[in-house]
Design brief:
single chain; alpha/beta; seven-stranded mixed sheet; five-stranded mixed sheet; globular
Length: 451
C-alpha cells in the first residue's frame, strides 16, 4: 500500500494555456540547424573541453568533462561536426554547438547484464554516457558527487507547477523505460528509492521502490516536499533527486545501449500559438519549433514553468536537456496601464487580496512577466510561510543565507532545500526579492566553504 502525503500550504496558480493531450507536429520534423549543450543547465559542473572545433562526434560521444570530477562526461545529443564553443566573460563556456549530420549515427554502449551486475559498472555507464548530469544531490542542489553513495534517492513523478504537463502522458509508451530506470537507481543506493506520484496515478512502479502519493496544491510535486515529509536530510547525509522523465532516459540507455535524449514536451501558456505536446530532441534551437508565440504583443518564451523556468532568447536559444515544458506568456514591458498595478481590477490575480480575485477561486488568469511593485527590505509578515509546506522557517532561513550565518543556516535546514522550493515564496513576496537567486548563491557559497 502506498504512503500518502497531504499538504495544505501552497498555491495553485491557475493560468490560461494548459496543454491538452494532443500531439503536435513541428516544421521539418523539428530538425534544428544546430544543437547545443549549455553548462548553466547543470549547476555545480565546471566544464573542460574533450573535443575541438571541427571535430566530428557521434551521438553519445563525450564532448565535455567536469574539472573537479573528470569521470563525469557530457555527451553529444546528435552526431555531427562541432562548429562552435561559445564563450562569455573570462572565457566561460556558454554553449557547445554541433551541426547535425543528415544521417545520424550513435555510439554503442555495452549494457548486457548491467542491471544485475556490479554496481560500479552501472555507475561507470551513467558517467560515460552523460546521463549522470541528470542526477542532482542534496545538500547544495548540484550535480551528484560520484564518490559519495546516496543515503536515499527521491524521484518526482508528479508535476504541480503552473500549467504543468501530465506525467503519465509525458511517459506514454515509455513506462517500461521508467521501470528499468528505477530498478537501476535502486541498485545505486543501500537506502530506499522514493517515488512521488499524484493521487490515483496510473503509473506502475517496480517492487524495489517506495510509492508515495502526494496530495495538495503546488509545490506538492516538488521533490523537496517529498524529502521533507518522508526522510529529511541531516548534516553529513547525501541524497539524490531526479524527475521521472529523466529516469526514463536511464532506462532507455539500459534497454537499447544508445544515448537518446529525446522526450515529450508540453507547449503551454496564454500566448502560445498552439497548445499540446511535441516529441523533441532537447538541445535544439527554439526557432526550429516554428512560431511558438502569438503576434500582437511582446512575448516571453520560457523553458520550464513560469516560476522556475529559464527565458529563451537570441543569446540563449537552446532547449535544456532536462526540460518537460515550454511556456509562452506576455512580457508586459510594452504595456501601459492607468495608475499601473495599483489600479483596482477584476481580471488580475493577487494572493494578498489586493484585487478581487479571491472571490473567483476557479477563474484562470493571463499574467505577464512584470514585477508590479518596487524592491524593498524584507518584510517579516509570515506571508512566505503560507505557501511554504516544508517544516522549515522560510523567512528566517533566507535572512541567515543573506547574512551567510553558517551555523544558523544549518539549524534552519539549508541542507535539504533548493531554489525551486522558494519559487512560490518569490511570487507572493511583497518585497519583490529574488529569493531563488539568494538561495542559489547561498548554496554555492556554502559548498565552497564546506569543501
Amino acid at each position: 500500500m502506498a504512503r500518502t502525503i497531504t499538504i495544505k500550504r501552497g498555491l495553485d496558480l491557475k493560468l490560461h494555456g494548459t496543454a491538452p493531450r494532443t500531439l503536435l507536429t513541428t516544421p521539418s520534423g523539428g530538425a534544428s540547424s544546430t544543437y547545443a549543450w549549455v553548462p548553466d543547465d547543470v549547476p555545480g559542473l565546471t566544464p573542460k573541453m574533450k573535443v575541438h572545433v571541427g571535430d566530428h562526434v557521434e551521438a553519445g560521444d563525450p564532448i565535455v568533462y567536469d574539472k573537479q570530477y573528470p569521470e563525469i562526461w557530457v555527451t553529444a545529443p546528435v552526431s555531427g561536426e562541432l562548429i562552435a564553443i561559445n564563450r562569455g566573460a573570462k572565457r566561460k563556456i556558454m554553449s557547445v554547438e554541433i551541426r547535425p549530420d543528415e544521417c545520424q549515427t550513435q555510439r554503442a554502449f555495452a549494457v548486457e547484464g548491467l542491471l544485475d551486475g556490479e554496481v560500479s559498472k552501472l555507475q561507470a555507464l551513467l558517467l560515460e554516457s552523460g546521463l549522470w548530469t541528470l542526477i542532482r544531490q542534496r545538500p547544495y542542489d548540484r550535480i551528484a558527487n560520484p564518490t559519495i553513495a546516496p543515503r536515499d534517492i527521491f524521484v518526482t513523478a508528479h508535476l504541480t507547477a503552473p500549467l504543468a504537463p501530465e506525467v503519465d502522458y509525458l511517459l506514454e509508451g515509455r513506462e517500461e523505460e521508467l521501470r528499468i530506470g528505477l530498478r537501476a537507481l535502486a541498485r545505486l543506493t543501500e537506502g530506499k528509492v522514493f517515488v512521488g506520484v499524484a493521487q490515483n496515478s496510473p503509473l506502475t512502479l517496480p517492487a524495489e521502490v517506495v510509492r508515495v502519493e502526494v496530495r495538495g496544491p503546488h509545490p506538492a510535486g516538488n521533490v523537496g516536499v517529498l524529502i521533507n515529509h518522508t526522510a529529511p536530510v541531516n548534516k553529513g547525509e547525501t541524497v539524490w533527486t531526479l524527475r521521472a522523465t529523466d529516469v526514463a532516459l536511464i532506462g532507455r540507455l539500459l534497454m537499447t545501449g544508445h544515448v537518446d535524449y529525446s522526450r515529450r514536451i508540453a507547449i503551454t501558456g496564454s500566448h502560445a500559438t498552439e497548445h499540446g505536446y511535441m516529441d523533441l530532441l532537447p538541445g535544439c534551437r527554439i526557432e526550429s519549433l516554428g512560431k511558438l508565440a502569438q503576434e500582437g504583443c511582446k512575448t516571453r518564451v520560457i523553458a520550464g514553468d513560469v516560476l522556475t523556468g529559464t527565458q529563451l532568447t537570441d543569446e540563449r536559444p537552446f532547449l535544456p536537456m532536462s526540460c518537460d515544458q515550454i511556456t509562452v506568456i506576455p512580457d508586459g514591458s510594452d504595456r501601459d496601464e492607468l495608475l499601473g498595478w495599483a489600479m483596482p481590477r477584476i481580471g488580475e490575480f493577487s494572493q494578498s487580496r489586493t484585487y478581487l480575485s479571491w472571490l473567483m477561486p476557479r477563474k484562470r488568469y493571463t499574467l505577464d512577466a512584470r514585477l508590479k511593485g518596487g524592491k524593498r527590505a524584507m518584510i517579516m509578515s509570515h506571508e512566505l510561510q503560507s505557501v511554504f509546506p516544508l517544516n522549515i522557517h522560510a523567512e528566517y532561513l533566507l535572512k541567515a543565507i543573506i547574512a551567510f550565518d553558517i551555523d544558523k543556516m544549518e539549524e534552519l535546514g539549508i541542507y535539504e532545500v533548493a531554489p525551486e522550493d522558494f519559487a512560490l515564496c518569490e511570487f507572493v513576496d511583497t518585497s519583490k526579492m529574488e529569493l531563488q537567486h539568494i538561495v542559489r548563491q547561498g548554496l554555492d557559497l556554502l559548498y565552497k566553504e564546506m569543501n
